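DNA-binding protein: structure, please.
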Amino acid sequence: MSAQHPEPEMLLTPSEVATLFRVDPKTVTRWAKAGKLTSIRTLGGHRRYREAEVRDLLGGIPQQREADR
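Here you go.
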């Protein structure tokens, strides 16, 4: 019998999340402290964010209209 291994969960750094939202990485950290985004701590104490959760949050933000640009 072979054991089924689930797909590894993709994690993003604060800088990667900040780039997606076009904000400063410290803003992402504040969102995590406020509970708007779940963070995972690495063994070294760094924050990482689940890509699926970040994408869901990003999908809930209204996009800029072409006329506003």
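Notes: The beta strands are 11-12, 39-41, 47-50.
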